[in-house]
Design brief:
Distance between the termini: 70 Å
Shape: rod-shaped
Structural class: mainly alpha
Helix content: over 70%
Length: about 100
């Protein structure tokens, strides 16, 4: 059972991170230490890997956001311009207002 937990953690981490050299080294270390019956803090390894994955996805999100932000801002500004135009047109109509201004 003691061997099963690190193996499951290693498999989960390698599938998320796409098994680069760092992950391969960590998996090898966990398996080696487990076979040698050395005590390891598996929660610390998992915590560090989750921090790495979070950092990686944060950088990816920032890159994606910086790429698409002009398009997002253009859409938002167009919507705001339309709403402001409608408010201005309705304010010019005075007592008579068409169905869009009611």
């Amino acid at each position: 059972m003691k061997f099963l937990v690190p193996l499951i953690i290693s498999i989960c981490l390698s599938s998320v991170v796409n098994a680069n050299e760092k992950t391969t080294v960590i998996i090898g270390h966990v398996i080696t230490q487990t076979i040698q019956n050395n005590d390891m803090d598996h929660s610390e390894i998992l915590e560090n890997e989750l921090k790495f994955i979070t950092h990686h996805f944060t950088l990816s999100l920032i890159e994606s956001l910086s790429t698409h932000l002009p398009v997002i801002l253009d859409g938002v500004s167009a919507t705001i311009r339309l709403e402001v135009d409608d408010l201005y047109k309705c304010s010019l109509q005075g007592d008579y207002q068409n169905k869009d201004c009611r």
